[in-house]
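Researcher: Re-running this chain for the archive, since the previous output was lost when a drive failed. Same request as before.
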Amino acid sequence: MALQESGEMYLETIYVLSLESTAVRAIDIGEHMGFSKPSVSRALGLLKDEGLIRKDKNNHITLTAAGEILAKRIYERHTVLSGLLMGLGVDEKTATEDACRIEHYISDTTFEAIKAHMKKYGKK
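Model: Regenerated structure tokens:
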């Protein structure tokens, strides 16, 4: 399944918000991402159609098993790349923003090499 960058960003946001709260709502996602209610609603509908999220009777949003796998993968990339960039001396704001862009395009091969390099040289 080829998910677009925006879909990956929504999954990552849902994952991060779920770490902070047991109830993730569309309004929480919109506020976190700075997107309008209609934009969030459309994106969530697409993710639901792809089987990556589900909504309960209270409209709380959770990741399906497949959605969680993708979200964790994206989040790991974000945290590892942010850490790498900050380790190189990039300020946190810039490192986080750049990692957010890179995480969607970096190949698995390159990402695994970065992780191996960081592990070898004592970085997380």
